[in-house]
Amino acid sequence: MLLVLGILIGVQSCKGQSGKKQAEELQNKINGVMDAYHKPTSKSALYLEAKVDGKPWVADWMFIDPEPNKSFNVNAHKGDMETLSSHPEKNATLSFYITKDDVKGKGSRKFSENSNQLQFFEHENIMMGSEGEYHITNATAQWIEGTFQCKVKGLESGTIHQITDGFFRVSTPEKWKKDL
Fold it and tell me: Quick count: other Cβ atoms within 10 Å of Cβ 146?
């Protein structure tokens, strides 16, 4: 969705001054919809942290999927919505899916090329990881917590980065609460 947003803004900005105004209006409308789903992080609520090549990486906000069925996207962002289009180099995203069965059984799942890769986007560098795993450490009607680690590889650059000491806390989806 954020990629589509960027493309729409780019297309609109090519139309001159009126295009810039249209892009701003479009951005405001999209932000109005997105605001309901993206939530700021804090150590006592939604949260994701990890080390990327040994350096701390802490999410500023997380995107919440309102209607998950069998899996849930842990979608964490560094940077804010306002700088997304104007300063993309200041933004990064870390994303992977957890399954309802793993949450229910406090289980683990390996990342895999076929079904669940960890995705890490940093500016124009898209990295995918299939060597690693997540582990659910706590699941209540309010929160799902877990740890994760993964090796990611840049799709274009081929560079390898280590994501270690990962921790996440996401709100338990309404549809999952009765099963925990």
Answer: 24
Query: Residues 14, 96: one domain?
Result: no
The CA radius of gyration of the chain, in Å to the nearest whole number, is: 17
State the pLDDT at residue 44. 85
pTM of the model: 0.75
Co-location of 12 and 45 in the same domain = no
Task: For residue 153, give its domain range.
Answer: 38-177
165 torsion bin: left (phi>0), alpha (psi -120 to 50), beta (else):
left
Residues 149, 94, single domain; the answer is yes
Together in a domain, 42 and 26: no
Q: 3-state SS of 68-134?
A: CCCEEEEEEEECCHHHHHHCHHHCEEEEEEEEHHHHHCCCEEECECCCECEEEEECCEEEEEEEEEE
Structure token digits, residue 35: 């605001």
Q: For the segment 135-157, what is each residue's pLDDT rounded down to a tens digit?
A: 999 999 999 999 999 999 999 88
CA 52 to chain centre: 15
Return the sign of the alpha-carbon dihedral for residues 47, 50, 55, 59.
Answer: negative
